[in-house]
Amino acid sequence: MPMASPSSSVRSDGAVRTPLAVWGAVLAGPAALLGLAAAGGANAGAAIPLALASGVAGYVLTRRTLNRPADPAAPAPVPAALDHPPPFALILETLPDPLMVIAAEEADDLTGRRFVFANAAARELFKLQPRGGLLVSALRSPQVLEAVDESLFGGVRRSVDYVGGGAQGREWAAHCAPLGVDERGSRLALLVLSDETDARRSERTRADFLANASHELRTPLASLSGFIETLRGHAKDDVGARDRFLGIMQAQAERMARLIDDLMSLSRIELNEHIAPLGRVDLAMAAIDVLDALAPQAKEKAVAFDPVLPPRGAAVVEGDRDQIVQVIQNLVDNAIKYTPRDGVVRVEIFSGLTADMAAAPRDPGAARMSLLTPDHAEGERYASLRVSDRGPGMAREHLPRLTERFYRVEGQKSGERSGTGLGLAIVKHIVNRHRGGMTVESALGEGATFGVYLPMARGDSRDASASPSSPSPLST
Amino acid sequence: MTEHTVKSYGEELNHLTAEVTRMGGLAEAQVADAIDCIARRDAPLAQQVVARDERLDTLQGEIERKAFRLIALRQPMAVDLRHAVAALKISMSLERCGDMAKNIGKRALILTEADPMSALTRSIERMGRLVQGRLKDVLDAYTASDLQRAIGVWGRDEEVDEHYNAIFRELLTYMMGDPRTINPCAHLLFVAKNLERIGDHATNIAEIIHFELTGEEIVSQRPKLELSK
């Protein structure tokens, strides 16, 4: 706790104790370590490829040594059976699962629990200082704190769920095990988190997919079978009707195909949502590609584009190119659909904004809503994309629900080529995967503006916003 | 409390902060569970939420006593005094958040008896997650003494209001359309109002943190993009 108080160093007397003492305790109770390996074991298959090479070697070695069937009466397997004792400190430090050793003295001093060791994964997850500190400064979930207490003072093992906050919402299983008492009389316990986001999310996504698919496919399917029945029945010899019906049937079949495509891509995106994308994408270049690809469609409706783009290299974001293109495409495609004939779709890209600036409203008169807000990241700069149409606009009460699957604003038709109702949901999930944000502004009768902002790639393009050729949103 | 250990002044101050953080964790869990029991129509969870509120009240009482004791015996000055007062004030805000969560739990119990209205509960859930995120952010800012993060929470308080207004209109439309929905919709309206109040408490806590760290009130222009036509 960074508290500026006269004696702020007092707190650290326990924490400063060299980790060696802790290792002593860990080694003295290898049975507890066995528990750690077993707890981590469930996740090891997925986790091992991610580990550093040294970590992998150490991890596998430890598990092999410790997972031998142990006779409970016999002394636990001692690492000394190896020629050289493996570097336990390094192994724990490089484990992919967050791990902490917690110390406490008195049962009723609830806030006195502190962590005396946190490995690299734990420090990264909870943004901790390596020198130790109070446990509540790392995590304050009551369930986990209770489980830790039971391990410290009840001497039992506990496993509880822990949901990390934030936009991507990682889900963990927290395993606690007692580590006995160290030579100073402090009780020690081990806390290991294993990431269960993948397993739980795929379960939920499968259920959602089935529910959505069965519900939404029913309508076109019913219409198809209706037409087939008619064609086999009284319209059998009516050439005109047959042509017309076959046309409708084809449109319905195409709609079903589009729906399945969209549902599949939504499921795929959702499953990867907690894994940040690798790679760099120039937002402006991607936008130019999308505008080129959608030009025929715009021409058909006599809709013109009005792009305001920064020069090459000024708006480079961290991202997956195909997904970024899909975001721009879905937004521009929507804008074309809702813009009346001879209208204009405006596509603007700005760079070098803070999160507050990127999410700030443009037109104070319009209704506005943040559809997605990224987790706070210190000093992050964003590139933002805004797509405005001159369509009918939406009333305020519709805005929060726009990214809901299959949500449709009443009384609005998106035209002949009706969408699947998943476009904005897909945009939202992609943007969330990219740690970005999404806003919408709309005034009835004056159109709508969708904004998406994504973290800029670190490094070379950071000061691009200072270049005079890049339009600044504050001065236009 | 065991009194045989003589704690130093700094340690006492740190413990007060830690105590408030722990209470924050409890309040967060209460709010999260309250939203869950609305979203999932989970009556047993709602009963737990209602029952658990007492723990927050007890904790608040303890923090209050400790803060008073510290102020009386140690007579802290300047930043130390602000720490103690901030702990006192934040614990009061958190206790109120707990009360709101309890009230949502009570209403969730009634709502499980009515027909499900998934479109509305989804909107409430969305607003709830937003409020929950703000509470988490502001408590993270408190534990890390992170001024920028606190200011960030403070600057984004309009979002919750927007959601509340949207839900208000949505509920009105439902109630006008079908008078049978008036009873559950009225409860949902209070749930939304409670969530909005929790959001206000998060803003309030951000202000307290700002004062604690700087000794000054927050005064800054909220960021706005100018109209570009």
Helix and strand topology:
The complex is a heterodimer of chains A (476) and B (229).
Chain A: H1 12-15, H2 19-28, H3 30-47, H4 53-66, H5 88-94, E1 99-104, E2 114-118, H6 120-126, E3 133-134, H7 142-154, E4 158-163, E5 171-181, E6 187-195, H8 197-232, H9 239-271, E7 280-282, H10 283-300, E8 304-308, E9 316-318, H11 321-338, E10 344-353, H12 355-359, E11 367-372, E12 382-388, H13 423-433, E13 437-442, E14 448-455
Parallel strand pairs in A: 8-10
Antiparallel strand pairs in A: 1-2, 1-6, 2-3, 4-5, 5-6, 7-9, 10-12, 11-13, 12-14, 13-14
Helix pairs in contact in A: 3-4, 4-5, 8-9, 9-13, 10-11, 11-13
Chain B: H1 9-40, H2 43-74, H3 78-111, H4 118-144, H5 147-155, H6 158-177, H7 182-214
Helix pairs in contact in B: 1-2, 1-3, 1-4, 2-3, 3-7, 4-5, 4-6, 4-7, 5-7, 6-7
Question: Key terms for this structure?
Answer:
heterodimer, A: alpha+beta, 6-stranded mixed β-sheet, 14 strands, elongated, disordered N terminus, disordered C terminus, B: 229 residues, 82% helix
